[in-house]
Q: What sequence folds into this?
């Protein structure tokens, strides 16, 4: 895909992030050089917005990149280098266990949307005009991307949900996912199960073999869902949700996008 380098393209990217959950919409990601570092003491991470999983297009700026350590405590990452297409930083892994590498919750651009039946539609989505009588409301994009990295043996503390906004709680440890085996997750919004939400699993290898989407499913009434990566390789789970913003937010509504990267052995 042609790089998004001008203001028109960036506006289109913002609309795509605010927009629907289909395979054509852009999504954030973080990708470490390794998900299991053995006895390594650091990992290098790239982050970007992309239409195809792990194919960087626009560097993620202004994101509060950080990590959660094996004890669940927040830690800093190294200085971030911003390129046109991606952002790069290092994270030190000072003790054994599992770390959450994250963009942190990033507030993005604002737009407007309207209700169409049971669905929220962002203005300009699909190129159609706003229906007569539709009430426009302001909405802001919120993006969060996570990945889990383990030094030594996997641990659980970094997997604890934050209880804020849209996130996935991994039931199957992300660094223990195997090709051909089902992995279990719970989708949460503000710490509570989010039911009947669309979940898409992308394959990094899909850029080359034409099978970009590995699976599509929905969360059940308890927010639970399972995914089975058929092949070894790197995958990205994508979920989107639109809902009312918390009190004091810049807009009354928000469009949330969450991704979780993992490697299936």
A:
């Amino acid at each position: 895909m042609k790089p998004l380098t001008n203001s028109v393209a960036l506006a289109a990217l913002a609309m795509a992030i605010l927009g629907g959950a289909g395979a054509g919409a852009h999504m954030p990601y973080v990708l470490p050089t390794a998900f299991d570092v053995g006895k390594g003491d650091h990992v290098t991470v790239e982050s970007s917005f992309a239409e195809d999983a792990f194919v960087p297009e626009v560097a993620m700026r202004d994101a509060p990149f950080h990590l959660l350590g094996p004890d669940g405590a927040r830690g800093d990452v190294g200085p971030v280098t911003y390129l046109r297409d991606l952002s790069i930083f290092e994270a030190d892994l000072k003790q054994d266990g599992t770390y959450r590498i994250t963009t942190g919750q990033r507030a993005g651009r604002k737009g407007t949307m309207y209700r169409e039946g049971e669905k929220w539609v962002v203005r300009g989505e699909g190129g159609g005009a706003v229906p007569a009588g539709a009430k426009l409301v302001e909405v802001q994009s919120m993006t969060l991307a996570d990945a889990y990295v383990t030094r030594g043996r996997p641990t659980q503390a970094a997997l604890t949900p934050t209880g804020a906004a849209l996130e996935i709680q991994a039931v199957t440890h992300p660094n223990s996912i195997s090709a051909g085996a089902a992995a279990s997750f719970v989708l949460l919004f503000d710490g509570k199960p989010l039911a009947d939400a669309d979940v898409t699993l992308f394959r990094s290898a899909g850029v080359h073999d034409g099978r970009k989407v590995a699976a599509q499913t929905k969360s059940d009434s308890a927010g639970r869902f399972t995914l089975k990566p058929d092949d070894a390789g790197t995958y990205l789970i994508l979920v989107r949700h639109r809902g009312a913003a918390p009190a004091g937010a810049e807009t009354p509504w928000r469009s949330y996008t969450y991704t979780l990267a993992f490697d299936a052995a």
About this structure: The radius of gyration is 18 Å. The longest helix spans residues 7-18. The helical segments are 7-18, 206-209.
